[in-house]
C-alpha cells in the first residue's frame, strides 16, 4: 500500500486521471462523433488535458475542501 503522507498526491492523480478520461471522451465525441481517427484524437486530447488537470487538482483541491467545510453544517 501507499504511505498516507502521499494521500494528496494520489488523490490528485486519480481524480485528474478519471475526470480527464471521461471528459476528453465526451468532448471529443460531441465535437467529432465516432470518426475513423476517434481513438487517436481522444487519447491525444486526454494526455494534453491530464497534464493540465493534475497540477490544477493538486493545488485547487485543498481550497475546495475548505470551501465545502464552510458551506456544510457540522
TrEMBL record:
Transmembrane intervals: 9-30, 42-64
Keyword Membrane: yes
Pfam families cross-referenced by the UniProt entry: DUF2798
Keywords: Membrane, Transmembrane, Transmembrane helix
Protein's name according to its UniProt entry: DUF2798 domain-containing protein
InterPro entries: DUF2798
